[in-house]
Design a protein that fits this description.
Largest sheet: none
Helix content: over 70%
Distance between the termini: 29 Å
Number of helices: 9
Number of domains: 1
Strand content: under 5%
Length: 170
């Protein structure tokens, strides 16, 4: 993996993390408090600052160490999705808290299926949070040195690793 692939990793991981984070935020706002073991998961998604405390980056990266260099691209993408999804969900959840559910209920009363209701009513209203969520996921993925250095295979490098290796310690 070359330094030019950092953009592809960032694009792919930000897009997947944005979709997963949007679905997680909708689930967290709509279905209230989780009981049992899912309560820890809810706490992780609601508080992005605490998410990394529960699943430290180094521990997750050791689990994702690639065995060969051609798997490094997908390993980095998976690791970046895992870390940026929590931040994306928090951004989108802040918009969903003030969302008026009566708009969706009116559409469903008029016969609109739930998926179409989400796509036509909900998504355009929460779009001002979805776009910054994607941008945050892209920036986190493009900038992250720790995850990239732990999950790249032998001989692979990303843009943050290349920049870090060029810095003089003088």
């Amino acid at each position: 993996m070359l330094a030019g692939d950092a953009g592809a990793v960032a694009l792919l991981s930000a897009t997947v993390a944005n979709r997963a984070g949007t679905l997680a935020a909708v689930a967290l706002v709509r279905f209230g408090r989780f009981q049992g073991p899912l309560a820890v998961f809810r706490h992780d998604l609601r508080s992005a600052g605490h998410a990394r405390c529960h699943i430290p980056g180094c521990r997750c990266c050791f689990c994702l160490l690639p065995s060969e260099s051609r798997a490094a691209f997908w390993t980095i993408v998976l690791a970046h999705i895992t870390f940026s999804m929590c931040y994306v969900a928090v951004v989108i959840q802040s918009r969903l808290v003030t969302f008026d559910r009566s708009l969706e209920e009116a559409a469903e009363d008029l016969g609109c299926p739930p998926l179409k209701t989400f796509m036509v009513i909900t998504l355009p209203i929460i779009l001002p949070a979805v776009v910054p969520g994607w941008m945050l996921g892209f920036t986190l993925s493009l900038d992250d040195l720790v995850i990239a250095s732990f999950t790249t295979g032998p001989g692979a490098t990303t843009l943050p690793m290349k920049i870090y290796s060029q810095v003089d310690s003088a």
